[in-house]
């Protein structure tokens, strides 16, 4: 009887991990982007809005500076849940995920040419549950 319960638990946990997977939101063009690949693709004073859109797609957000210059922001977040999330009862008290975020921000001049850009990649841990 005990081995049947253990087998059921193993199958249940395996299925939960398999079906839960990871969550990705944002611009998937950034998935394989690195600092060096951004430097190779964007040239300040030369790359245009069209060049940026061809390389990275449409921005997640478009804003403007006080002087009217356009800023495009690209973001990608990828969360991988911790294994403890899938342990019955324990997951309600302490759960979390490793979160990787990439952000590309591009500032254009009045002519639509890249004036400045920044790229960052951060890793964080998101925690939740009653015990957090």
Automatic annotation (TrEMBL):
GO terms for cellular component: outer membrane. Residues 34-116 form the Outer membrane protein assembly factor BamE domain. Keywords: Membrane, Signal. Coiled coil: none annotated. InterPro entries: BamE-like (IPR037873), BamE_dom (IPR007450). The keyword Membrane applies. Residues 1-20 form the signal peptide. PROSITE patterns: PROKAR_LIPOPROTEIN. This is Outer membrane protein assembly factor BamE. It comes from Burkholderia stabilis. The lineage of its organism: Bacteria, Pseudomonadati, Pseudomonadota, Betaproteobacteria, Burkholderiales.
């Amino acid at each position: 009887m005990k081995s049947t319960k253990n087998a059921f638990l193993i199958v249940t946990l395996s299925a939960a991990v398999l079906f839960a997977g990871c969550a990705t939101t944002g611009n998937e063009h950034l998935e394989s982007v690195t600092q060096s690949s951004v430097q190779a693709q964007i040239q300040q004073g030369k790359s245009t809005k069209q060049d940026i859109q061809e390389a990275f797609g449409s921005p997640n957000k478009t804003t403007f500076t006080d002087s009217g210059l356009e800023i495009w922001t690209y973001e990608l977040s990828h969360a991988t849940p911790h294994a403890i999330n899938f342990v019955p009862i324990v997951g309600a008290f302490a759960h979390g995920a490793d979160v990787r975020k990439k952000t590309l921000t591009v500032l254009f001049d009045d002519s639509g040419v890249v004036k400045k850009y920044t790229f960052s990649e951060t890793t964080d841990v998101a925690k939740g549950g009653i015990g957090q």
